[in-house]
Amino acid sequence: AAADGKLERKIMEQKNLLMAIVLSVAIMLGWQFYLQETAPPPDQKSTEKLQTPGPLPKPGSGVKNTVPMINGTPSQPSGINARDLKLGTVRTPQSVPRIKIVSPRLTGSISLIGARFDDLTLEDYRETIETDSEKVTLFRPFGTDNAYYAYYGWVSADTQHPSPNAKWTANRDKLTPDTPVTLTWTNKDGVIFEKAISLDENYMFKIQQRIINNSSKEVNVRPFGQIVRHGTPDVLDFYILHEGLLGVFNGVLEEVDYDDLQDQKSAEKTDNTTGGWIGITDKYWLAALIPDQKTSVDTRFSNARFLNHTTTKDDLYQVDFGAPVLSVAAGTQSNVTNRLFAGAKEAQLILNYRDQLSIARFDLAIDWGWFEWLTKPIFFVLVYFTGFLGNMGLAILLLTVIIKLIFFPLANKSYRAMAKMKALQPEMLKIRERFSEDRMRMNQEMMALYKKEKANPASGCLPILPQIPVFFALYKVVFVTIEIRHAPFFGWI
Prior knowledge:
alpha+beta
C-alpha cells in the first residue's frame, strides 16, 4: 500500500509539473502581448545640444578620461584644452558638409563636422509591407530628434586631437564599395590625423585610424570608437527578445536593457576584452563597433545623462571601446584598423562576417535564445526549404509536418495511453463512488487497477515534454529573424 501511495504521488507530481510548465508559458506569452497592446506611446523628446561623451581611459597610460558635461564643460580636469571639448552651435543636417555613401544596400552620408556616421538608410527594407512606405533609417544626424550615430576618434594628453566639432577634409565626395574615402585633420603642431574609410557590398565599414607625427616630439594618442543613441527607443519589450545594448567580451555575450542604465548607480558598466564586439541592437537592425580582434580593449555601456551630471531628462545611451595608447615618435606614423557594422541582422551574412573576419561570436548578434543549438538548425532548414519552395510560409508548413512526423512515435504512445485511460474511466468512477468516504482505500484500489491494466496516468503527458523546446524554438525563429519579416505567402497574406 505504501508503494502504491508513493507511485500515485509521483504520478500526480508529474502531472502537476507538466501543468505548471504549460500554464507558465501561456501566462508569460499572454502577459507580453498584453504589455505590447497597452503600453503608452513613447514620449517625443526634444533635441538637446549634447556633447558626445568620450572613451574610457587606459589605466596608467597618462591619457585621462575626457567625458564632458552638457554645454562643453569638462566633467573633470583632463589635461586637454577645454576648447576642444565644446560643441558650439548644433547645425542642421542640411548645413553640414557631407560625404555621400552610395552602395547597393546602404546609402546616406558621413558628416565632415566631427566625421560622424550619422545618416544611414537600408535600401532593401521598408517600414511596412506597403511598397511605397519609407525605407528603414538606421542612423540619424546629430542635432535631430532621436539622433543615432557612430564616431571614431582619439584622445591625447600631450597634443591637440580632433574634437567632436572638428571640420575634416576629404579626398573625394563619395564613398562607394569601389572608392574608399580618406578624411584628414591636422593640428597646430603638424600632427596629421587620418581616417581611411571603406565599405563592402553589404553593411561593413572598415576604418583605419592613422597618426602621422610631423611635430618635433613624441605624441601619445589613444584611439576609440563609440555609438551614441539619443533618447530611449520604442521597444517590443518581449521576454524572448533582447533590444538594447549588447556585446561579446572574451567569448561571453552580455546584454544590457535600456532600463538597466536609467539609474545613477547603474549608469555605467565596464569590461575588458580581447576579441569580440560591442553595439546597440533593435529587433532586426544592429550597429556594432568591432575593434581589432587581437588587441585588448576597454569597453563600456553607459547612459551619459547621469555620467555627465546633467539636468536633462533625455537619456543618452552609449557603447564605446578604448584601444591601447599609440606612442608615435617624431617623424613617424602609426595606425590601427577597426570596423563598424551598421545594417540588417541577416543570419547568413552575420555568420560570414564572423568566419571571414574572425569576429568572436558575432553570430550572437541575433537573439537565438536559450535553445541556440536547436533554433539555428530550424532556421537554416526553413531557409533551405524556402530555396526550392519559393515561399517562406510553405517552408514553415512543411517543417511543421516533418517535426510532427519525427515526434509521431511519442505522440502515438501518448494517444494510446490516453485511450487506455479513457477506457478505464467507468471502472475508476465506480471505485470513486464505492470508496468516496475512504480516500486511502480509494487510492489503493486505483493503483491496483492501474497495475492490473498496465496503465500509467502520466504516460499520456510525458511524451509532450520533449516537443515543447522544439516548438518554442520554431516560434523563436519566426519571431526574431529578419528573413521572415514581411515575407509573402499568397495573395494579400
